[in-house]
Amino acid sequence: MLETTAGASLPSTGTDAKKRRVTYFYEPTIGEYYYGQGHSMKPHRIRMAHNLIINYALHHLMEVNRPFPAGPEDIGGFHSDEYVEFLSSVSPQSASDPAHGRQLTRFNIGEDCPASAGGSIGCAVKLNRGDADIALNWAGGLHHAKKSEASGFCYVNDIVLGILELLKVHTRVLYVDIDVHHGDGVEEAFYTTDRVMTVGRMAEYFRAMFQPLIQKVMEVYQPGAVVLQCGADSLSGMLPVAGAMRQQLQLGVEPDNKLPYNEYYEYFGP
């Protein structure tokens, strides 16, 4: 989730929240990817989330967009030329070639690395143009990918690419990562600049510390934009926190706790 800020404080949850413009990026084919039994990365969850958004009728309160496929020039904004060239040339057929096999090892590529860079770049462009106050890409957040290699199911770091786009307009960008796993790829990318501040690894004291800590960061750092990586694994067993996250959407509505019937209703049991 990406957001532009009007001041140093957190967004209001009052009546003015209804005025905030939200744009949402969704690629219908994302749920067709399958990485095998037992694999922790399940893109089908993105399709389930979209189905809930539709059945809660939240899409009427947002601008819905289909992301463009990020090309080599877009990905090369962060990743090395050699790595981008390899990603552009590899295919399931060529992967069986011994030469490509050696490159797969070199760049740490396996069969478990999805990419969703176009949506995150699109979110940043919308914010930069002033077309939205909040931009969502639930398929993004691949925070482990490094400049010249894949890591942790991530081979294209859509977050870094989105932040680089935001830096074209905003002097400072705050990156908040609530995933249980450390967003090392993003931190490494901006380690030597004070234009991007990263906050993460807070899962163990999330409930007590998140809001006051981020409030202070906003007051002191005063970012022009905020990027939030919503790794849901940190919310396990802490459903009240999920409600605090939902307020960030600023749609001016409170979804009913009773789940509406939807195409994937049985997936949410018991």
Tell me the layout of helices and strands.
Layout: E1 2-4, E2 22-25, H1 44-55, E3 63-65, H2 72-75, H3 81-89, H4 98-106, H5 117-129, E4 134-136, H6 158-166, E5 173-177, H7 184-189, E6 196-199, H8 206-221, E7 225-229, H9 239-246
Parallel strand pairs: 2-3, 2-4, 5-6, 5-7
Antiparallel strand pairs: 1-4, 1-7
Helix pairs in contact: 5-6
For this structure, what is the CATH class? Alpha Beta
- Strand order, largest beta sheet: 3-2-4-1-7-5-6
Would you give the CATH topology?
A: Arginase, Chain A
Largest sheet: 7 strands, mixed
Q: What is the end-to-end distance? A: 29 Å
The rounded Rg comes to: 19 Å
Strand content: 5-15%
* Total domain units: 1
The SS-based structural class is alpha/beta
What is the CATH architecture descriptor? 3-Layer(aba) Sandwich
CATH superfamily membership, which one? Answer: Histone deacetylase domain
